[in-house]
Structure formats: structure tokens, C-alpha cells
């Protein structure tokens, strides 16, 4: 594996070559370093940090300052992976001008290579304006968590013929608007496959089946570090919560038993110096 920086052109070439694309969320420096070294292609500073890092029950309270703060940390750790920062709720929905200004702030202040925005055809103008400013954009359709109250909950999208047709149309319009990739969240596998075949740009699925050009997951879900969040699309590759809990329990016990710190963790004073003390 080459350690050259992944660019938007590399992602385009991967789609054409039929080579799978891997993406994971990261919210801090040490996780970014670890995932980057493991070879993940793209790191998403997701607004899911609202849930996972900040403890909100949705992504709606997340601010530009939150995204920039965590985006900077991730960019410092990502040598090879392409870093994408989610635009937070209300940073791009009010006016096209504000959307471009905020996308520009994210690029200037974090060093990310792209931004991501949620929404279908209604976001085409925003996407093309940001792209015109020279900023690569990933679009995001299907279950768009910033619209959870309009969607009426976290439910699979595109299940009726009309809803599926709208998503296919949204995808085509967003490609035309200049998005270089498309995240599809919680939609039927056959629909995601149809969209993937219809587009020249890469599709990245989360709960959208194996027919996408790539996959994304929230890192805490994959590692088993977010108790209680178990939608169908999550595969737990580890149980870090248990490992952390067992490690900390051992630490507490060893403190009580004077097992920690041992001599190897402590600094010694020469006997002659000790004798001089009065
Ligand atoms: N830890 C975490 N992981 C995520 O993937 C994630 C977040 N947080 N926060 C922001 C959004 C919210 N997301 C969610 C939240 C809930 C479901 C969910 O309950 N899905 C059901 C659908 C059930 C149905 O309609 O049949 C599922 O079982 O997958 C899906 C995505 C995805 N994002
Ligand atoms: C789930 C992914 C696609 C996302 O938008 C996030 O983590 O915020
Ligand atoms: Mg998001």
C-alpha cells in the first residue's frame, strides 16, 4: 500500500476500476493516526460526534466550532487518508452564500480535503456553489439524521416506488451538481445498487448493502464503544467497552493492593542522598 495522500481523483479512479473504498469516522488525533496507519481510504469527521463524543441525543446541536475543533485534530493525524468534514445542521441550509462561507471556513481552518452535506435535489444549488468555490463535496441521501424530525425517526428510506424513484433522481441531480461521491444511508440494498450503477461518482453505503462502491461506519460502533447503539447495519468487530472496563477495574484493584505502581514505574533516590535528609 502506497502512503501517498488519497485525493478526490484517486476516489474517482477507484470507482472506474471497481476497487472498493473504505471510510470510517474519526473525531480525534490518536484515532485518526491509528485508522490512517491501518489503511482506511477516507476519514469522516462526522457530525455523529454530537452523539458519540459530546453526548447529545441527535446531531442537531453540533456547531461549526465543534466540527472545526475536531476536524483540525483529525487532519493532524491523517497522513494518507482523505479527510471529509460534515457540515453541521444550519450551516448550509439557510442561504447558498452562508453555505459557501461555512464550507470555506472548514477548509481554511481544518485542512480537510472535502465537506459533506445532507439532502437531495433541494441541495443541488448549494452543492454546485461550494464546488464552484473549488471545494470538493460529498452528498448524503436516504436517512439524513439532520432531518430526523421531518423523517419522523431513524427509519429506512426509499421503501416505496415513489420514495425510491425520488432517491434515484436526487442521486443523479447531485452528481450533476458536482458532488464527487455520494453517501447513502439506510436504504434498500437493491436501490443502492441501482443508484451505484446509474452514477459515474462513487457511492458510499451505511446500511445500504454490499452493492455500493464503498462503505462507511461510525468507528465507535465498529469497535463496540457506544453502548446502546445497535442498528441492523452495524457490525461489531471488537468489544472495546469491555476491554476498557476490564483494564480500569484491574487498575483500581492494583491501586488498592499496592501492586501499582511497581518499582519499574517509580523513580529512585540514591541511598547516600536519602541519608543526608533530616
Ligand atoms: N453511533 C452512531 N452511529 C451512527 O451510525 C449514527 C450516529 N451515531 N448518530 C448520527 C446518525 C444517526 N444514525 C442512525 C440512528 C438510528 C438508526 C436506526 O435506528 N435504524 C434502524 C432502522 C429500522 C427500520 O426502519 O426498520 C435499524 O435497525 O437500522 C439508523 C441510523 C446514523 N448515525
Ligand atoms: C454516518 C455518517 C455517514 C455520518 O454522516 C456521520 O457519522 O455523521
Ligand atoms: Mg453526519
Automatic annotation (TrEMBL):
Q: Which InterPro entries match?
A: Pantoate_hydroxy_MeTrfase, Pyrv/PenolPyrv_kinase-like_dom, Pyrv_kinase-like_dom_sf
Q: Which residues form the active site?
A: 185 (proton acceptor)
Q: Where in the cell is it found?
A: Cytoplasm
Q: Does the keyword Metal-binding apply?
A: yes
Query: Which reactions appear under catalytic activity for this entry?
Result: (6R)-5,10-methylene-5,6,7,8-tetrahydrofolate + 3-methyl-2-oxobutanoate + H2O = 2-dehydropantoate + (6S)-5,6,7,8-tetrahydrofolate
Pathway, according to UniProt? Cofactor biosynthesis; (R)-pantothenate biosynthesis; (R)-pantoate from 3-methyl-2-oxobutanoate: step 1/2
**What's noted on cofactor binding?**
Binds 1 Mg(2+) ion per subunit.
UniProt entry keywords in alphabetical sequence? Cytoplasm, Magnesium, Metal-binding, Methyltransferase, Pantothenate biosynthesis, Transferase
Which residues does Mg(2+) bind? 47, 86, 118
Cofactor annotation: Mg(2+)
User: Which BP terms does GO give this entry?
Assistant: methylation; pantothenate biosynthetic process
Indicate the family of this protein.
Answer: Belongs to the PanB family.
> What is this protein's name?
3-methyl-2-oxobutanoate hydroxymethyltransferase
Q: Which organism is it from?
A: Propionispora hippei DSM 15287
Q: Gene of origin?
A: panB
